[in-house]
């Protein structure tokens, strides 16, 4: 009696690959499309050679725009609800109306454009003088022990002092004219810019200097083509910090015998409790300060493309 032959079960893979066999339908899930906010706040793809990415890498413009819009909406909500009186915090509409009024009719004997030009002249005039003098002094402090011994004590002595502390002395020496205002802002910008230039020089690697010497470079070529170029990122940072200090010192400089300027306008309006003009002046100062900072960032990307890559 012969046993019935039981056919071996066909493996699932073989059955699926058999000719004429019907393959099971593969359910392909369509990836969900991310929302607007998810795309705005998504990090940028990692570049080649950066397996784990760099700290802080990725665009932040969208986040900044959303932050500004949220602050504006919060400002409108607070002022519209009456939580704070307009005397202390006027609404955006009142600020815009006052901006148009001061731009056309003027305030304290000058229009908004005349106040702005006076302040720009003082701040950027002092900034230009500080760049011409503070950057060479900082480089000299970094490459020469004699220069460091001569300039380091006075700079470190007056750097922590607030401008209001030596404002009376500047007035006694130079009077209450335009020069004393520019000189006060110049002193405020000089110290951080010189220290930043010195820090940039001291951060140059010795390997680069030795490599340049081994190729026959002279000490002057070392300073101009190796040290100064390597110190440019720190110098640009010092320029950005210096111009910010200059704008903060502007109000102190325009406290004495000034007839025009944004700082003078803000102080004069504060005496009459005109908070709308005070806030308007603060916005104008912040606008020019932020615009100059954006210009410095762009110049830094163009002139110092090796920053963070060496």
Describe this structure in words.
The protein has 310 residues and is mainly α. Helices cover 68% and strands 0% of the residues. It contains 12 helices and no strands. The chain has helices spanning 12-17, 36-40, 61-81, 92-105, 112-143, 145-158, 163-174, 178-202, 206-214, 219-253, 262-271, 275-303. The longest helix has 35 residues, at 219-253.
Gross geometry: flat
Average of the residue pLDDT scores: 81
Q: In whole angstroms, how far apart are the ends? A: 88 Å
Strand content: under 5%
Please count the helical segments: 12
- How would a crystallographer describe the biggest sheet? none
List the helices and strands in order: HHHHHHHHHHHH
Total E-strand runs: 0
What is the assembly state of the chains in this entry? single chain
Would you summarize the structure shown here?
With 310 residues, the chain is mainly alpha-helical. The protein contains 12 helices and no strands.
Protein traits:
single chain, mainly alpha
Task: Show the helix and strand layout.
Layout: H1 12-17, H2 36-40, H3 61-81, H4 92-105, H5 112-143, H6 145-158, H7 163-174, H8 178-202, H9 206-214, H10 219-253, H11 262-271, H12 275-303
Helix pairs in contact: 4-12, 5-6, 5-8, 5-10, 5-11, 7-8, 8-10, 9-10, 10-11, 10-12, 11-12
